[in-house]
Specification:
The protein has two helices and no strands. By secondary structure, the protein is mainly alpha-helical. Keywords: Membrane, Transmembrane, Transmembrane helix.
């Protein structure tokens, strides 16, 4: 049995939260309402998580 790599899930969580906060702050700087900025930040967090997970899974398969 291979050793479990605990860095991958942590990296996924950190990247998703970082993208969410960055996009939310960027939207608020450009004058968007807070609720709308948080919604766009959440959507971008989901997209970033899917992209990072697919890259991790692709590397693991090879």
């Amino acid at each position: 049995m291979r050793k479990y790599n605990f860095i991958r899930p942590l990296m996924l969580i950190v990247i998703a939260l970082l993208v969410k906060s960055l996009i939310t702050n960027l939207c608020m700087v450009f004058g968007m309402a807070q609720a709308q900025a948080e919604n766009i930040g959440f959507i971008s967090m989901l997209i970033a998580a899917i992209i990072v997970y697919s890259r991790i899974a692709r590397k693991r398969r090879k």
